[in-house]
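Hey, quick one: can you model this chain's 3D structure?
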Amino acid sequence: MKYKIQRAAERGRANYGWLNANYYFSFSQYYDPEFVHFGALRVLNDDFIDAGEGFPTHPHDNMEIVTIPLSGAVAHKDNAGGSGIISAGDVQIMSAGSGVQHSEFNASQTDPLNLFQIWVFPKKRNIEPRYDQKTFLQEGRNGKWQTVVSPDEKSGGLWINQDAVFSLADVQKDSSIGYNNRFSGNGVFLVVIEGKIKINGEVLNKRDAIAISATDSFSIDAVENTRLLAVEIPMHLG
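Sure thing. Here's the predicted structure for all 238 residues.
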């Protein structure tokens, strides 16, 4: 098992007034040669967006873009016909494919928004752009992994154009949870959304992350009540 830890305080940061962004990987004006990407995982941003603010219409292509609101709600609209409100408990995916333009705004005029925005390099390029979202109930991840994104349409998760799997889990204090890769040889980027864990003898706190490779399984011990995001991802591009 190989791993690299990224502490929450070590992430890139940018404050634009209306947007307070935290970057797990090099993005915009932030560059860290140790954290450019992890296999096919290119971006994981922990964004805090003021009420009524957001990203005006802008283009993307050949990227799988996953949005996970942690608190608040996102108003999305794109030129492929996709639109909607994505609230905490929902997950959204957009395959930019051959090209799409979209906007994302805090849907509230009074409350702040916190979300993860995650970009994954696609398996096939220039596919027809597509958009989907789904609500996932909290009880579906109590003490177990809840698949929210997967290329297997029978998994219950949103379809992604990549051999990648996104999973959430809520783990109670003093209990453990194992992770087994769906695709042998993939790596896992694990984020502690809330709480505190111990893995391979290392303690990780809220918003700490660990990039795990060279193993198809590992175990996590919850030191506190904890919510986790696991992004299982191919380690090789192309």
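One thing worth noting: DSSP finds no helices and 22 strands in the chain.
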